[in-house]
Design a protein that fits this description.
mainly alpha, Tetracycline Repressor, domain 2, flat
């Protein structure tokens, strides 16, 4: 029985080192992009390959990120128990695991999707592992750099059907980029002390809380514009705008309210929670956006 528990524990750690929370959020946006483009005329083989292949590539990227960030993670409360910090998974094991995940992921995408999807996966991996990995340590713009990889899954889902880069693909990229900035700045506000201790130059640490709040409002405003553009350009219909328009404006209003608030940690937590609600609603409405008026 003890041996069985140990095996389950080991499997859990290998699962956890891939950052499953990030995978789930990105799978949700991948599915939304696919359903929007396909208008629910689903090729189940392509759909499954897109979702599974993208998930495996993201898992590989997150595992490598855990390897690269292990010395940073040991300085932060929320990450100091991660597998590579605690030694449950060794660096060699992590890299070997990531290589297997990457090979499986890209093999799946190459075999059953198209080269645009493969390219989106490769671009997302390079930006997350290499460019974002460097930027987060050296510049306050690391968050913006990181949004490029975070915007690839929804674009990959769309490209799996469209097989071309068009205005809709660009707008989907923009809407995910502008959503991510206030979302991740809300995390940075709540964890500013930990980022400072780890030597990560996130915006609240370098430029202060008020500047961070101002930029959150600016990006939320841009997100709202992108939501409108999706409908104005016929990518989605009026019902999408009737749902997402007021929700985006509410998110913007709460951001403006927070500029002069003093309870930064509480407000950051509220904005983080609201950003998740916006993402869930966006993914749901995009999924049916191609078939609703």
């Amino acid at each position: 029985m003890a041996e069985s528990n140990t095996k389950r524990s080991t499997l859990w750690h290998y699962y956890h080192v891939t950052k499953p929370g990030i995978i789930r959020g990105n799978v949700m946006s991948t599915i939304a992009g696919y359903l929007l483009a396909s208008r629910w005329q689903i090729d189940w083989v392509v759909f499954a390959a897109t979702v599974v292949g993208t998930s495996l590539v993201i898992a590989a990227s997150c595992t490598i990120n855990n390897y690269l960030d292990r010395h940073i993670d040991e300085k932060m409360i929320r990450t100091k128990e991660r597998e590579l910090v605690s030694g449950i998974i060794s660096p060699v094991q992590a890299l070997s695991y990531a290589a297997v995940l990457a090979v499986l992921g890209f093999s799946t995408l190459i075999a059953w999707t198209n080269w645009y999807v493969v390219g989106a996966g490769a671009l997302g991996m390079v930006f997350y592992v290499i460019i974002y990995g460097w930027a987060k340590r050296t510049t306050i713009h690391g968050t913006l750099v990181g949004t490029i990889s975070g915007s690839m899954p929804i674009v990959a889902g769309y490209l799996a059907v469209s097989n071309r880069i068009d205005l809709a693909a660009i707008l989907l990229f923009m809407v995910m980029t502008t959503w991510q900035m206030p979302h991740f700045y809300a995390i940075a506000l709540r964890r500013a002390a930990e980022y400072k201790a780890a030597g990560i130059p996130v915006l609240p640490v370098v430029k202060g809380v008020r500047r961070t709040k101002f930029e959150m409002v600016c990006y939320t405003f841009l997100f709202t514009i992108c939501v409108v553009l999706l409908s104005l350009n016929g990518v989605t219909g009026a019902i999408f705008l009737l749902v997402m328009g007021p929700l985006s404006l509410y998110w913007l209003w709460r951001g403006v309210q927070g500029i002069n608030r003093k309870d930064d940690l509480a407000w950051g937590g509220q904005m983080f929670g609201l950003s998740l609600l916006v993402l869930l609603s966006l993914s749901a409405m995009l999924s049916v956006g191609g078939i609703l008026p």
